[in-house]
Structures are given as C-alpha cells and as structure tokens.
Amino acid sequence: MVDYSWDTSAGVVANPVPLTAYRPLGVEASVSCAQFTALPAGGAVLSTTAEPGLTGTSPDGLWIGAVKPGAVSVMSAGRTLFSGPDCDLSVRIGPDDWHIARSGDVLAQGAGDVRPYVAGFFSQLPPATSTAGLSATVTADTRFETAASGTKIALAVVCATCAVLSLLVAGLHDRRHARRVSAAHPRPRKLMGADLPVVVLILLWTVIGPVTVDDGYTTTMVADAARSGFVGGYHHWLNSPEAPFGSFYEVYRWWAGEGTPLLWMRLPALLLALLAWWMLSRIVVFRLLPGGRRMGWVPWVAAVAFLAGWLPFNVGLRSEPYVAVGTVAVWCLVEHGIAARRLLPIALATLLAGLTLTTAPTGLVAIVVLLVAAPAVLRLMLHRRGAVPVTVGAVAGSVGIVVLVMFADQTVGAVRAGTAIRTAIGPNFSWSDEWTRYQALLKLQVEGAFGRRAAVLLLVTALVVSTTVLVRRRRIVGTHHDRLVRFFAATAAGLAALAFVPTKWSHHFGGFAGHLTVLVVVVTWIGCRAVRSEADRALILSAIALAAALALNGSAMWWMASAEQVTFWDIPPQVLGVRLATIALSLGVAWLLVGIVLRDRQQLLRYLVPPIGLAVVTLLIGTTVLQTYGLVRATVLTSGYSQPRTTAAALVGDDCGLDPYLRVEPDPVLGLLPVAAGRDGAAVSTGGMRSPADRVEHASREGLPATDMWTIDDGSPGSLRSDWYALPADALGPVVVEVGGSGRGRVTVEFGRSTPTGPTVIADILVDLQPRVSPARFDPIATAPGADLVRVVAVQEVSEPDSWLTVSRPRVPRTIPLSALVPATAPALLDWPIAPLLTCRRQATLAGGIAEVPDVVVTPGRDLPEAMARSAGGPFAGLLQAYRLQPVPTYVDGMPTTWRAEALRLVPREPLRPPTVARGMTTVSGLSGRPPLMWTP
Predict the structure, then answer these.
(1) DSSP secondary structure, 868-924, as one string
(2) In Å, how far from its chain's centre is CA 548?
(3) CA distance 254 to 540
(4) What does the pLDDT average to over 717-746?
(5) Fewer CB in a 10 Å sphere around the end CB: N or C, the chain?
(6) Nearest-CA neighbor of 18 among 917, 851, 828?
(7) pLDDT tens across 189-205, in order?
(8) Rounded Cα distance, 129 and 513, in Å
(9) Cβ–Cβ contacts within 10 Å for residue 171, how many?
C-alpha cells in the first residue's frame, strides 16, 4: 500500500502523481475557505487532472472549486457530488461509497464507485496562497505488487508434495503392470549428418536473426520486474500482468539478471530449438515412420522442414518456442505411455501440457494432443486393475502443479481483475474472427512474409494430402497407423484450437514447427511409397506448387529495424525480373493440366512429373536460403546501421545495439543554412504565402522560429520560390525541410550547382505532403552529387476552403550523440518496437502504483508511445497531464534519410514538485477482486 500526498510545504505547487491504474483505491482531501478567497473565478482549488495548458479539467477527475463566487462544487468521475456555499470541506472517496463533511458534519454522501482519474495534484491558486487546511492524499492501487502469505506458501507446499507422491504412486504401479517396448526409446542416439546444418543455422540466426514483434515487450517487462517485483504489461493494460498465462516471462525474468542484450536474451530460444530438434529427429519421426530408420534421406528432409518452420517464427523472445517444444514433448510422453502401457508418462504429459498452456493461450495446441490420445489412454486405464484411481490421482496432482504456476506470483482476485481489463482493452477477437489470421498471412506485410507463408501453407497442404492418401489407402506402408492417425488429428484440431486464442497473429503458427517437420517427412514418404499413380503425383505436385506460388508472392519483410537493408524486404523475390511466384504458379497449372489430361498415359508422365519430395524440399530450402542471404547481406555487405550487425557485435562486447548510432539535434536553429554568397535572401511570393508562419497549428514541429517558416492558410492560391541557400562542403547529415499542407499544394526541393552564369538546377524532388507540418529529409550526396545550393519551391494551385501550405527554410542538422544529451543511466521510456535495440538504457520504472518520470522517450518515429496512450491503457498516460512531449530531431548515423527512431523530451507545463510518499503493507484476501480496475479510452 502506497499513499501519495500533496506537498504544500512551500506553497501551492502542482505535484505529478501518474497512477498506473489511473484510479486510486481511495482519495481524501480537505480545503478551507482561505483558499476560496484567493481563487480566480471558475477556478479549481484542487484537481487531479489537467487539460493541456491547465485551462480546464478532465471530466473523470476530482475537481474541487468554485463555479461562481459563493458556489463551491465537488465533482468526481464526471458526477457532481456536492454544490453549496460551504467552503471548509473534507472529502473522502472509496471504491464503495463517498462522503463530504464540514467539521465532522456530513453534508453529502452516497454509495457507488466514483473514484476519480488521478494524474497529479493541480490547482489554479496563486503559489503564495495560504495552505492551511489544504491537503490531498491518494492510495495507489498496488494489487499486483504482492507477496504470498504463509497460508498460501503452506498450501503450495502441501499441493506440491501430494503431486509428487501421486506421481510416485503411478510409477510404482507401472513397475507391476507395464511392459518394456524398445521402440519407445529414442533412436538413433548417435550424431547425424543432418544435425550440422540445423545447429549451424540456428546459431547463425540467433546472432543475426530479426527481432519479433514482442521482443520489446519482453525486454521491458522483465527489466521492470526487477524493480516493481512482478512482470506487468508495462506498455498497456494498466500494467496488469498476463497471468494466468505468461509463465515464460518468469524464465526471461531470471535470465535477465545479467542484463537484456538481445543476443543474451535469445539463448533460451536457442536451447529450445536444439531440444525440439533432438526430440523430432530421435523420437517423433522414427516412431511415426519405423520404416524410415533405414532411409538416409529422412533426417535430411526433417532438418530442412524443421528449419523452415522454426526460423521465421521462433528466434525471438515470444512464447511459441515453448509451445512448440512443449507440444512435441507431450506427444512423446503420451505415445510412450500408450506403447509401454505406463501411467507415469501420461501423468507427466498432463503436467507438461498444463505448463505449456501457462505460457500462452496457444498452449491449447499441447492440450489437444492429450485430448486426441484420450480414447487410447482410457482403454489402457480400463484394462489395468487399479489404474483408474492411480491415474486420476496423478493427473489431479499434475493439474494442481499447473494451478500453482498460474497463480504463483498473483492472487486469484488480481488475475480476475487483470483478465477483465485485458479483455476490455483488447485485442480480444472472437473465434469467428479466425479468418483474419489467414488474411494477415496472405497480405504483403510482415505478418505475411514469404518464409511464414511457406511454412504455414505447406503445413496445411501436407496435412490435407497425407490425410487424403491415408483415407483412400486405409494404411500407409512403413508407418505406425494408430500414431499417425492421432498425429494428423492433433494437428488438425490444434489449428482449429487457434480460433479460441483471443489474438489473431500469424506468429502463433510457430507453435507448429514440430508438426510441419513430421508432415513434410510423411508427405515425402507418401510420394515415395504410397502414391503409385503418376497422375496422382502430378495433382499433389500441383497443390504444392500452388501453395508455393502463394508463399513466394510475399516479401522478406521483418519487424521494425530488422527489415533495414534486407534483400526483398518490400517486394516478392524474383530472378532476372521474373517473380518466383509466377514460376511456381506456372508449374502448378502445368502439373494440374498434365495430371488431368494425361491421366491414362503413365509412361509419358514419368518424364514430366518429378518426385514429390524434391518439390517440397526445393521450396523449403529456397525460402530458408533467401531469408538467410538477406540477413547475412544486411550484416556484412551494407554500410550504416543494421539490426543483424549490431546484434552480432555483442559477441565482441558491444551490446548497446542502436544506441551508438543515434544522434540528436538539440537546437535546429543552429543548422539553418545561410543565403548563398551574392544573394539577397529575398523570396518571391505571390498570393498569401507569408512569413512568419505564426499560427500554432502550422508551426514548426521541431522548434524552428516562425520567422523561418512560410505559410498560406486562407484557402487562396499562391506560390513561393525561396532564394538559394549554400550547402556546407563538409556536410554529412541530410538537408531537412519542414513541410505540411492540405488541399492541392505542391512543394519541390531543388538542388543546384554554382556556375559562372548563375545557379543551375541539377535535381528537383517532389515532397509528399502530410496533413501536419513534419520534416522531409534529403541526402544530396545520393540524389544530387556535386550540389552546393538548395532552395524550396511551393505552389498552392487552386482556392479551396480551409486549405493551407507551410514550408520552412532548409537546414543541415548539427547533431550530438543521444548519450551526450541524455546519459544511458537516466530513466528512459522506450516504446516497444525500439526497446530491444536500446538495452543499455535504464528504463523508467513502474513501481508503487506510479510511473517514474523519464528523462527521454524514444519511439520508432511516432509522436506518442503506446505506454502513454490512454486508449491502450498505457500506464504512463498520466504524465501527459503534467508534461508535454517535445520532439528532438533524431538521426541514425550513416543513414541520413532513415527515420527509425525519435527522441522526445518531457517539458513541464508548469512548476512541479514530487509528492510526499508513505509506504506500508496490508493483508488482503487472495480471492478479492475489489475494487475493479476501471478504464475508459
């Protein structure tokens, strides 16, 4: 429990109190008549929120003031609680009721939750006003910052002990009734040649692989947990944790004890990849395909498929590697239990499936494996004496361990409250929206990169083909029929189970890396052993080629900065100008026609239809090689910043990622270019284009004075041609011109070269107008070699109501390193897309129910980080009541026109002082979810 009180010891000064939960557990405030005598008309003695400029108050905060002389009002959460002439007031607001009193006499009271939004203590009183009788205290909502009571710990010990004993009983029961099955043991145990490419590529991608969408979430969440005591959402959901899911964060929380450099944080996923490959190549594949033990190509095909299913999804810090490994391990344990007629492996599979589910809702895929095997397990239980109570006890014990993990760090009430707020804020899709996952997969965007498409589309195609062949032939030679049927059913049911996951991202398919590995091997086996008709083989090849065409129609786009300088990041892959997707589509159509038209000419078809395995392996090797080449090229063959190269630099001790490349421009005025020698600096203007551009909405975003801006904002046509400005000979940075407009305006930046007869235009670049003033960057070295002059030409072509056009004087920024402006040890708010690239910076903390004020905010080029967006439940949102964000122009060293990061400083709206803090401890019931977390966008 933490109380924050208004510090009025040195007069009336605002105190920022940006509560992460927005609303406190309770509020107590008192005011006296002395304050109302000094209050301006319509002002507030106390307000817990303030609009920008402090001219009014937010409708859901607490407001105590005088609407008019002699009329005191108290409002909270949009409701008027009191209105009258009394001015010596004490106010108490709790989650269930509220009352307002004067000298102990109750003036107004009521039931219901009217707790206000709290961002601080603000007032419109003069600073020198007497503070006698003036006070305010809020109790922060710290329900997630808990420690287990002795009772909970004792129950956990008892539960764990019973679970272990139940598993021991199951093991003893197995010794009496089980049988030995040699096939249940891993084969082969020695090293294989296929291990080499798997290990090498997994290691290589660990070093140079792209970031995933949630790497920034994970690094910031686990880093903050070291100070707050729990793994909260940090960027959204009022900092509520993801319990009962998200147990894998605890692994990273422990792992991050040595820091959060990206390479270091990827090592758990590396270990999981090696474990998954070992289980697949030693156990799963050969238990499903006993006949494949003598086929040397089987491990190689499995290796190709595993890499294609793992690398595009599971290199980062998400939950899918844990789901993939957990699902494969559950399958191994269940099938071993069924084959050997043992109960202990089945109980352990139940435990592991439950633990997999605690990592993320996609862990349902592991639960599905259990459900599919349930009939076989039930038959085993019914045919063994005493097996039912033993199995039920062992499974119950395993479930108890899972529940302990789910609620290890949070109470039941806290989990209920967190789940409710996550559901309210979202994303929270219905099962009927599952189609949107596949829609995203087939779009030309990062969710639909060709590596992801190839893995998923081939997974579905292989499942359909294999199931069709199995149904038609009833049995596939060389396979274990019952296990294969269960595996097919588990894969199909697992894909269906994704519909019940509340988010619909394509990276969830990373949990099917093991399924893809097995299905590719099976469909290759089918092509060799089960499909005798060349026409049928042609039809199967047609399906695979059409899937390949869809896959190769995607680009090699990766998340955020990982796409920088990667081959084919924005277009589908092609050779000599021909898209690979077009080639695959042509082959697919050709094989389809061949399979239909020449169905009765088997001899001819033998020369036209290649082996199925060759087509599958070619597709998977091709996509893996293309993706790997793009990342290697971005690491080795390019200049400037690249995420793969900076991640690899951690191997030699440079683990600060993007930070050394970031430069900022503290004072844009210093970079304004001088008028070229011999010029008078006059601008030719017609119509209403004028300087200074003094309207706020058309002002410089980066702090240039109005005298260095031109604007036309009366809807009339006009034009401007600035004089020539001299470019410095040693300029390494870009030329920057701030531009904005609405309507049919046109702005061109012209680069020129001085000649004896006067300036000559050697390049002109049309600027894409935005509906707000924003900087446009140009690299004269790349676009206009030899240029030593620059000017701006702007035209507002036709008259349109409310149209406007604004341009600035050009400049070449004078920059310093970001670390020179804000040291890495100062608190920083790192937006989640940029966070995994700036792991040397200390994060602003969310502890004690309040957000620490950061010295700098770094975003991937957007004005507002998600953690400050109230629409997302950003726990730093309250800071915007007391501070405004001032952009600091930011550049990436060696990449003049790239916009990959932007620094913003927090500028106080008025003088501020920190509140007085009182900390304490209280005991609450773990079942209590009161009061509810409240959020409005």
Answers:
(1) G-GGGT-TTTTHHHHEEEEEE-EEETTBTT----EEEEEEESS-B-PPEEEE-----
(2) 28
(3) 48
(4) 86
(5) C
(6) 851
(7) 578 889 999 999 999 99
(8) 68
(9) 18
DSSP code of residue 445: S
- Judge whether 510 and 318 are in contact, CB under 8 Å: yes
In sequence order, which residues have a C-beta less than 8 Å from that of residue 133 and are 6 or more positions away? 30, 31, 32, 34, 35, 88
Residue 365: C-alpha distances to residues 314, 403, 459, 502 (Å): 16, 18, 15, 14
DSSP string, 244-273: TS-THHHHHHHHGGG---HHHHTHHHHHHH
Residue pair 777/734 in contact by the 8 Å Cβ criterion:
yes
pTM, 2 dp:
0.91
CA nearest neighbour of 703 among 891, 898, 909, 885 = 885
Amino acid residing at 393: G
**Tokens linked to 397:** 């014990």
CA 821 – CA 585 distance, rounded (Å): 54
Buried b (16+ CB within 10 A) or exposed e, 369-407: bbebbeebbeebbeebeebeebbebbbebbebbbbbbbb
In whole angstroms, give the CA distance from residue 917 to residue 6: 9
Rounded distance between C-alpha atoms, residue 896 and residue 863, angstroms: 20
Which of 931, 893, 920, 765 has its CA nearest to residue 145?
920
| Cα–Cα distance measured from residue 210 to residue 331, given in angstroms and rounded to the nearest whole number | 30
Residue tagged 């609407």 (tokens): 67
Helix then strand count (H, E) for the chain reads 26, 34
pLDDT tens digits for range 6-27: 998 888 899 999 999 999 999 9
pLDDT digits (tens, 9 = 90+) for 117-167: 999 999 988 888 888 889 999 999 999 988 888 888 898 899 889 889 988
